[in-house]
Amino acid sequence: MRSFFKNVLANIVAIIILCAVFFIFFIMMLVFSAMGNDKSVVVKKNSVLTINLKTNIIDSPTEEEVGLFGLNAQNKSVLLYDALEAINKAKTDDHIKGISIEADDLNAGLTQIDDLRNAIEDFKKSGKFVYAYGNGVSQSSYYLGSVADQYYLNPAGGIELKGLSTEVTFFKDFADKYGIGIEVIRHGKFKSAVEPFLRNDISPENKEQLSTLLNDLWKSTSNKIAASRKIDTAQFRTVVDSLYGMIPELGLKYKLADKLIQKTEYDNLIKSKLSLKEKEKLNKISLANYISSYADDEKSGEKVAVLYASGSINNGDGYNDIYSEQYIKYIKKLQDDDKVKAVVFRINSPGGSANASDEILFELQQLKKKKPLVVSFGDYAASGGYYVAMAADKIYSEPNTLTGSIGVFGVIPYFKDIANKNGIRSDIVATNANSMYYSGLNGVTPYGVNMITRGVEGTYKRFVHFVTQNRKQTFEQIDNVGGGRVWSGTRAKQIGLVDELGTLNDAIKFAAQKAGLKSYNVDSFPKKMSPFEQIFKDLNEDDVSARIIKNKIGKANYEILEQITDKKLQSEIKMSMPYQIKID
User: Fold this and answer.
1) Which residue stretches, if any, does this entry annotate as coiled coil (predicted)?
2) Is the sign of the CA dihedral 94, 97, 103, 109 positive or negative?
3) Which of 180, 182, 398, 451 is the most core-located residue (most Cβ within 10 A)?
4) Reduced 3-state DSSP string for 191-242
5) DSSP letters along 77-133, please?
């Protein structure tokens, strides 16, 4: 008995010590986080604004990657709007003498790089230099770096300049072979998200839209690179087709780079440009630190609010991606905030749940009744991402935004054949005719298919209805450019799916003008989580495990896994784009 009490007492003491250690660690985390946030950055004379590998350009505060217990990830995240403002400010900042682009693998979308390129082009009008350096350079990084006055490449490096492509994987034979049934219901011949389950090759309609889209995006991108590097367009096509950029000597020969030098030589070259002595330090300041040097902690006065919506659209509550319950709260808060005189809704989404999209659209329509609502498109504004834009007074799209995809689908997997082959079967007892209209083992009943089809068709008609109201076109006109087809922003403007081609800043200026504001502050929503909030969020077991899996298999693969394993996602009618396109 004495031994028993000793063990109990020892366990109690261990628990107390563990709690005390955790409490101390918790307090230390808060203190260190606060210290990190209060750290001031001073911009020294003869500084060079540097866009490097340690900067992630993100479209929304919800995209920021953080480590466990709120610790920052290895790379700092910078909002695109803040990055553009920083480059604009650096143009007239006497302490900033130039820009150095040192990003081999830039973490940014195509429209984000477009905006950064435009901002740097404008910066060059100040007469300050812009140099770029690369080692093993991705296509997206070279697209940005090619805007520089001079591009320098490592003698053992290379540039992956190859053009755009997409690869579609098909699962029909796999499903047939292993007895997996997939019931597909869709509206729109271009709604190709479900094609991998229906066919073994790309349909003519999907091939047409993919070819048109890729050529639109590449024409814009390649023309800008060729113009910046002063390369004839025919020769540039040969350079890309031949992958000459992968060999440094050929990259130099065909004018992709100006000189092959080591990184130390590149830094010395900049020092020489700044007339610095050999022992003087080269002051480089990152975008994130430069923004910290002047950013205001608290904004007062009249505001234009930018509400960022980035990621897939889902029902329920959550911080990352676009969750209907959370965004309804954001929208209502902005609607009731008297200091907010206009709202810009920044959309960067391939869509998702039809129901969640509809909820968000309704709340935006209520907001629009009280104050101007302007929409700005980022990389994606497709399906549900386009649907929620239909409350806008005006829609701005980037030229390379993937736009439209006006279509609806549902995918219902079942496992009857594979179950029967392995000796598994089921019987059903029910109270009503369609109590079990869907079963994982037996699939969907004919009547269930009929009703789901009616639901998909009804959702499509509702989708087109809101588009006709906002775009002031007939059902037939929208249906002709709908059907699930994805367009570039440039073509979307031509066919009337958007009002203007322009940046987020253009949308903000128009919103302020519509609200009659002469002076105003720009405030971003949703707000970044505080360290305290992040710590408790990270303690959620599901979030921790999800983050670990996502880091291991990649974001794109994780989204596929989530679609298969999440029952809520399986049961919904979807407004979602079939693919994503990256310049890498």
Assistant:
1) none
2) positive
3) 398
4) CHHHHHHHCCCCCHHHHHHHHHHHHHHHHHHHHHHHHHHCCCHHHHHHHHHC
5) EEEHHHHHHHHHHHTT-TTEEEEEEE-SS-B--HHHHHHHHHHHHHHHTTT-EEEEE
> Which CATH fold topology does 303-576 show?
2-enoyl-CoA Hydratase; Chain A, domain 1 (3.90.226)
Q: Is 254 helix (H, G, I), strand (E, B) or coil?
A: coil
- Could you give the residue numbers annotated as active site? 191, 383
- Residues 277-298: pLDDT tens digits? 888 999 999 999 999 888 765 5
- At what angle are helices 204-229 and 233-241 packed, to 10 degrees? 120
d(CA 380, CA 351): 9
Q: Which fold has domain 47-162+243-294?
A: 2-enoyl-CoA Hydratase; Chain A, domain 1 (3.90.226)
Q: Which one has a higher pLDDT value, 554 or 459?
A: 459
Q: Specify whether the CB–CB gap between 111 and 378 falls below 8 A.
A: yes
C-alpha distance from residue 228 to each of 17, 65, 91, 140 (Å)? 63, 33, 20, 15
State the pTM of this model.
0.80
Distance CA 470, CA 472 (A): 6
